[in-house]
Amino acid sequence: MEVVSREPQAAAGGPISHAVFRLSRAHRLLAGRLLRDLGLHPGQELIMMYLWERGPVRQSELADRLQLGDSAGTTRRVQRLERAGYVRRVPDPSDGRATLVESTESGRALRPRIEAIWTELETKTVAGMTDAEQRAVLAALERMEDNVGRT
């Protein structure tokens, strides 16, 4: 039986990188489908989770900590959440020039639903894997993240 590679010929020199790309894309699409019922896009739930854990933070901290891309992308995500009524921007009491982003009551009400979505996403992602396999994959992914982050 001949094994057929999932990589196009051009990706033959980087099969792991191509697999990571495919997995990332598929995972983001699944997350998007699960979040759609809440009117959220992938990445917005990460902002909400961070705000629930940390409380009000500067928008620049969200961009830095969550690695959501450029500051313009973070601004767009926060604006969408603000229009939906899930966050608000308020003056930073320690620096009048800065603004904090905080969850609203409506945003806090999303927490159980977003947590359930992330549980479903995790369950679908690791379906059929043993605990040992999950630990090994997590360790490998963390190592690859460290490798890529150092460059």
How would you portray this structure in words?
The protein has seven helices and three strands, in the order H-H-E-H-H-E-E-H-H-H. A three-stranded antiparallel beta sheet has the order 1-3-2. It has helices at 15-36, 44-54, 59-66, 71-83, 105-109, 111-125, 131-149; strands at 57-58, 87-92, 95-103. The chain is 62% helix and 11% strand. The model has no long low-confidence stretch (mean pLDDT 89).
Element layout with pairings:
Elements: H1 15-36, H2 44-54, E1 57-58, H3 59-66, H4 71-83, E2 87-92, E3 95-103, H5 105-109, H6 111-125, H7 131-149
Antiparallel strand pairs: 1-3, 2-3
Helix pairs in contact: 1-6, 3-4
Q: Quick check: average pLDDT?
A: 89
Helical content class: 55-70%
User: What structural category arises from helix and sheet content?
Assistant: mainly alpha
Taken from the alpha-carbon principal axes, the silhouette is globular
